[in-house]
Design brief:
The protein has 615 residues and is α/β, with parallel strands linked by helices. The longest helix is centred in the middle third of the chain and has 38 residues.
Length: 615
Amino acid sequence: MALSLRKKQLDLITRMLHLNQQQSSPDCGGEGEEEAYKILVMDGPCISLLSPVLRVGDLRKHGVTLHLNIDKARQQVPDAPAVYLVRPTPANADRIAADAAAGLYASFHINFSTSVPRPVLERLASATAATRSARRVARVADQYLDFICLEDGLFSLAQPRAYVALNDPAAADADITAVVDAIALGLFCVASTLGTVPIIRCARGGPAEMVAATLDARLRDHLLAKPNLFTEAASSAASSFQRPVLCLFDRNFELSVGIQHDWSYRPLVHDVLSLKLNKLKLPTEKYDLDDSDPFWVANSWLEFPEVAKEIEAQLAKYKQDVDEVNQRTGGGRDGVEFDGTDLIGNTKHLMNAVNSLPELTDRKKMIDKHTNIATALLARIKERSLDGYYRCEVDMLENGTVDRTMLLSLLSGKGTKEDKLRLAVTYLLSFEAPPSSELEQVEAALRESEVDMSAFLYVKRIKSLNTQFAAASSTASRSNIVDWAEKLYGQSISAVTNYLSDGRQLALTRTVEALMEGKPNPEVDNYILFDPRAPRSGTGGQFRGPFREAIVFMIGGGNYIEYRSLIELGQRSQPSKHVIYGATEILNGVEFIQQLVELGQKAGLGSGGSNLPSQ
C-alpha cells in the first residue's frame, strides 16, 4: 500500500483537534459524543504547517470556532477549551504559562509539534505551579508533526538557509551540528507520521551522511522503548512487511537543477509568481493551487503553451455548454454567459438548468482563475525573455551545446539580474572546460549588466577545486583529498560531482532508481546503508532492495523540477513505484541563487555588496 503522508498527517491533526480522542473517521466532524467547541492557538511555524492541509471551513467541522496566533493579544474565553499547537521553545512555554495564569480558557490541551526538550517542559511546569494554574492544563503531548505536507508526495521541513548554514566556510562545528540535528528530527517526524522505520541510504561524506547517522541513532534510541511510535503501525502493517528506502542527498549533488529556468506551468508559477504553501498572491487576487483545483491537478506539469491552449479549450467548451442550456430553456442568445435570468420553458429543462448552474459557475471561476494566472505569467515571460533563458539552458544541460550569440545576448539584454546570474552559473556547470575566451566574455557581460559576481565566482572556485581533486585522486587517497579540501577551503566538497544530467533524466532520478532496484550498480555501490532495526555490528543481513516505496530528501533545498522527475519515475516503472519527495525547504531559482551569492560574499568573492534583493 502506497505511503500517504498527507493523509496520515491530517489524521493526526484531526485527532489533536478532537482533544486527542481517537476518531473513527477523519470526516466525523462534530458528530461524536466527545465533540466540544474549542479555540485553536498556534505559533507562526505551526500556522504554516496547518495551512496546506486544513482550511477555515475544515476547522469549523472539527469544532474550532476561533484560530489565533499565540504571539498576538487574545481575549479571554473562559468557557471554552483551548488546543495549542506550537513548537517546543522556551518563549512558547512562557506564553502558555501566562495564558493559564490569566485563565484565558477553561482548559489547556498543549500539543508540541515535535518532542519537547526536558528543560522546556520543566519551565512550563514550574511556571504553572508558581501561579497555581497547573490544574487548567488537561494534557501535554508530543505530536511529531513538525513538517509541511504540501501534497501527498511532497513535504518541506521549512528550515530556511540550510544550504548556507552547511556550506559556510566560517561555520562553527556546533552550528553545523545544530542544523544536522534539526534536519534529523524533522525526518524522524516524517517517519513516525508514516509509522514506518525506513532503510537509509546516502553517499559517503558531507551533510547527507551526517544527517543519516544522526537519524539512525535517534531511531535506534526510540525503538528501545516499548511501546513506541512505530509499535502500532508495525502490528497493523504485518501483511506488507517491506519498508521504504530513505535516500538522502546534498544539494551539491546536482547543483544546476536548483537554479535553472523551467517551462512547465507549476515550476513557472513557483519561480516567477512566488507560489508559497500552495497559495498564490497576485496584485488583485489570491488563489489556492492544490488538489482541490482539478485544472491544476490535470495540467500543472504541462509546458506553458500547452496550458494556454487548454485554458482556451475549456473556455470554448464552457461557452458551448452555456449556449446549450440557454437554447434548451428558451434563451438562445449566442455567446451570452448563463446567469439564470433567462430560464423559461418546460419544468424538466428548467430543473436541469438549475442543477447545472453551480457546476457551470465553478467551471467559470476556475477558468477565470487560470486565465488571470496565465496572463500574469505571459507578461513576465515577455518582459524577461524567459523562453530564451529556458531554451539556452536546455541546450547546455541536455545537449552539451551553447549558442554563444544567444548566450551573450541574454546576458546583456532582457531579464532580471537574477536571471542573468542563473544563466551564467548554469553555463559554468554545463561544461567541463569552457573556452577561456568565451568564459571571459560571459564574465564581462555580467559586469556590464552590473550583476553581483559572488555566486558565479563561488561556483567557479568550487568547480576548479573539484577538478584538482579529481586529478589528484590517482596519487592520493580520497580521504586525504577531502582533508586537503577542508583545510584549503574550509568545507568538504567531495559531493560536488554531478554537474551534468543524462538528457532529461536527472542525476537524482537515476540514482534513486538504482537505489530502489537494489542491483549492483557502480553509481550507488559505495552508498552507505543504515538500518535502524538491524544490529549495529555486521552488515551481511541488511536488505538492499528492491524497494517499491522511497522517500527522497534533499538537504539544502528542493524544487518542483526534481519533484516532477521523481513522479515520472514512479509512473513509468513496472510495477509502479511510489516516491515521496522532501527537502529542508522548497526553493525557486531566485531564492537558491541568493544563497549562492551569500556564500560567495562570505568567501570574499565578487563585489562587496549584493545587487540582488534579499527575500
